[in-house]
Design brief:
- By secondary structure, the protein is α+β, with helices and mostly antiparallel strands.
- Helix content is 28%, strand content 28%.
- It has 12 helices and 23 strands.
- It has helices at residues 19-32, 63-72, 83-86, 90-96, 106-113, 115-124, 138-147, 172-186, 249-269, 302-306, 314-323, 413-424; strands at residues 11-17, 36-42, 52-54, 77-80, 101-102, 132-135, 152-156, 166-168, 192-196, 201-209, 214-216, 221-227, 231-242, 276-285, 288-295, 337-345, 381-385, 388-390, 396-398, 402-410, 432-433, 443-444, 447-448.
- The strands form 6 sheets. Strands 12, 13, 16, 17, 20 and 21 form a 6-stranded antiparallel sheet that branches.
- The chain is globular, with a radius of gyration of 21 Å.
């Protein structure tokens, strides 16, 4: 059943997403446009905002559920922001039904949904990237990693749960083990990309696209490893900061010239139908920027640090995207630094060898009561709900791996970081785990973390 919307509301938008990123997008709409109501599908039943209406009947995996909702609840446009939805032709199907939609179509979403497609796109268009090969035969992949004169990274070709489809390898033996693991998980669908491991430091590059031009957003630094000091396996992300510590006019101009503009030109050259957010993971090496991955949506948890700083009316920006007049627009921000820390569902009993290991290693036990959300000082930190749901009594409980994102803001990164961690101390649930070093800038083998 849909919550009624007052007649005074002039703008209605449907956001297709979930988790902390979706919450941040919805709040960007309502914060910058006082006349918009955002339908959020599937959303989160704990988001309490008169102008953010969760629609749990909408599925990320079935665009027909969104069409059924839109038949009775017309909107000005739909913003599709989740890769699971994008890769299932959500944009294509909604557009074919007459909806105005922002988001890359299925062919464009393959730049993220298939690692091999993204690599081939860069190679075909002269975009700087690491050397790579793709394989469908595990034995040939194992022979290849044994023959390499350099360290490599092994990636599953398609989308994976928990963002753990990447293994950064220190030796051929570790790379072979990754190939064997992925082969056992994929069976006949085995497909991996093996790429050169680059040395340098990473920067997350973001832009809003309208199909013709790109409006650059501030950059960010993402923390993908599970444990402090960038140890442990890669996951969907444990936190992020903005601005990137190395960001500045010269670096921004270099990345725009060598990466962002060439990617946008290549999309036009290949006839890809792309609108909405673009996220390019870039490694800054001694030889200049190299594209590690192209992602066809904004990052999570980078959205939680980037979007709260935007002061431009986002509904108007989206209309410019739809009208292909984005080149006439500018992004205005508040200039603050932000630090996001993900609170995750870890192991409930680390002393029990038979206990579920917790996110992102394997199984974890959801349904843990979350306390202290109401005690967080809104003047110090924002909360973005991810895998958090209401139980039968309406109480917040964990519902997945990354539960809540806590975002501190300040005039400096140190101040933003201090505020985030100070508010984290007020939140608790069984098995709560998070990195304690998000925003601590330490040089380790030439890489910022």
């Amino acid at each position: 059943m849909t919550t009624p919307v007052a007649n005074t509301v002039r703008h209605r938008v449907l956001v297709i997403d979930g988790g902390g990123r979706g919450h941040a997008i919805c709040r960007l709409f309502t914060r910058t446009d006082p006349d918009v109501t955002v339908f959020y599908g599937p959303g989160c039943d704990l988001v309490q905002d008169d102008r953010i209406v969760s629609v749990p009947s909408i599925s990320l995996f079935n665009p027909r559920t969104a069409l059924e909702f839109l038949l009775e609840n017309p909107v000005d446009f739909v913003f599709v922001a989740h890769i699971d939805a994008l890769s299932r032709a959500y944009v294509d199907i909604l557009r074919a039904s007459g909806q105005r939609v922002i988001g890359p179509d299925r062919a464009a979403a393959l730049l993220e949904a298939s690692k091999e497609r993204g690599k081939r796109f860069c190679a075909d268009n002269g975009i700087p990237m690491p050397r790579y090969q793709a394989f469908t035969d595990p034995e040939l992949a194992r022979e290849y990693v044994r023959s390499l004169p350099y360290e490599c990274v092994v990636k599953t070709d398609g989308l994976t749960l928990l963002g753990d489809g990447t293994v950064v390898c220190d030796s051929p033996a570790e790379a072979e083990a990754a190939v064997v693991q992925f082969a056992s998980e994929a069976g006949d669908d085995f497909r991996v990309v093996i790429e050169e491991r680059l040395r340098g430091w990473e920067i997350s590059v973001f832009a809003l696209l309208d199909g013709d031009s790109a409006l650059a957003l501030p950059s960010a630094l993402d923390y993908k490893r599970t444990f402090e000091d960038d140890r442990g396996k890669n996951c969907d992300g444990m936190g992020s900061v903005t601005p990137h510590p190395e960001a500045g006019p010269e670096l921004d101009a270099e990345i725009r010239r060598t990466v962002l503009d060439p990617v946008v030109r290549a999309m036009r050259h290949e006839g890809l139908d792309y609108s909405g957010f673009l996220y390019i993971a870039v490694m800054m090496t001694d030889d200049g920027p190299r594209v590690i991955e192209i992602n066809t949506r904004i990052g999570d948890s980078e959205a939680q640090v980037l979007l709260p700083g935007i002061r431009t009316d986002f509904t108007s920006l989206c209309r410019a995207v739809l009208d292909r007049t984005l080149h006439e627009q500018k992004i205005h921000t508040d200039g603050l630094a932000r630090c996001c820390v993900a609170l995750t569902q870890g192991c409930l009993d680390p002393d029990d060898p038979d206990a579920h290991p917790g996110y992102p290693f394997a199984g974890f036990i959801t349904g843990q009561h979350v306390t202290g959300l109401e005690a967080v000082d809104a003047d110090e930190a924002d909360l973005f709900y991810a895998d958090l749901r209401a139980d039968a009594l309406g109480r917040p409980v964990t519902a997945g791996g990354r539960v809540v994102h806590v975002v501190g803001a300040g005039s400096t990164l140190a101040e933003a970081r201090e505020r985030a961690y100070r508010q984290i101390d007020r939140i608790a649930f069984r098995g709560m785990r998070y990195r304690g070093d998000i925003g601590l800038l330490v040089e380790n083998e030439g890489a910022l973390r």
